[in-house]
Write a structure and sequence with these properties.
The structure holds two protein chains of two kinds. Chain A contains no helices and eleven strands. By secondary structure, chain A is mainly β. The relative contact order of chain B is 0.34.
């Protein structure tokens, strides 16, 4: 089944404790992206990647890191999480030149 | 600063009615305008999209109207059904890579 998977789905952590949210797609998509969703703000793009080893900042990249060492994986790294990074995070992917962006199921993060 | 402004925040429509959601943008460099539908507990899913050189696009009961001079676009859901109850997001894309979403509209279609 073609899909985007994210792990973990739920995470509670404390301020300053490094964490990684993984994202993987099995559709051979070149483009992958991370978003955060907050009430009243919609989705905001954090980082995106157009292909392996090619990443760029989205609208709200501060406090996040990404890497794209393999085509299928695009992990989101929070080196020192803070409470304002409490949010619902979505990973997405699409084929270059295609309209449809496929979203993962989301990761709900709570930073205490 | 929100690049794409969406209204209303919530909408209640009777079954069979027309649901209309509006979005406005400022950056004329945006090159693509999709609408996404999101059900509770799920990720957004592409519903319909339009390029700025087209004034209207229809897919089934869903229509996008695009007014380039006014920098506005809207989603019309004809014959709204309870199964359409979801949150809808408009978006604008820059350079086909950078996405800017509206704040969302929660639609409730009453039976």
């Amino acid at each position: 089944e073609a899909q985007v998977t994210q792990n973990p789905r739920y995470l509670i952590t404390v301020t300053g404790k490094k964490l990684t949210v993984t994202c993987s797609q099995n559709m051979n998509h070149e483009y992958m992206s991370w978003y955060r969703q907050d009430p009243g703000l919609g989705l905001r793009q954090i980082y995106y990647s157009m292909n392996v080893e090619v990443t760029d900042k989205g609208d709200v990249p501060e406090g996040y890191k990404v890497s794209r060492k393999e085509k299928r994986n695009f992990p989101l790294i929070l080196e020192s999480p803070s409470p304002n990074q409490t949010s619902l995070y979505f990973c997405a992917s699409r084929l270059r030149g295609e309209e449809t962006q496929y979203f993962g199921p989301g990761t709900r993060l709570l930073v205490l | 600063q929100q690049q794409v402004k969406q209204s209303p925040q919530s909408l209640i429509v009777q079954k069979g009615g027309i649901s209309i959601i509006n979005c406005a943008y400022e950056n004329t460099a945006f090159d693509y305008f999709p609408w996404y539908q999101q059900f509770p507990g799920k990720g957004p899913a592409l519903l319909i999209a339009i390029r700025p050189d087209v004034s209207e696009k229809k897919e089934g009961r869903f229509t996008i109207s695009f007014n380039k001079s006014a920098k506005q676009f809207s989603l019309h859901i004809m014959d709204s059904q309870p199964g359409d109850s979801a949150t809808y997001f408009c978006a604008a894309i820059y350079n086909f890579n950078k996405f800017y979403f509206g704040s969302g509209t929660k639609l409730n279609v009453k039976p």
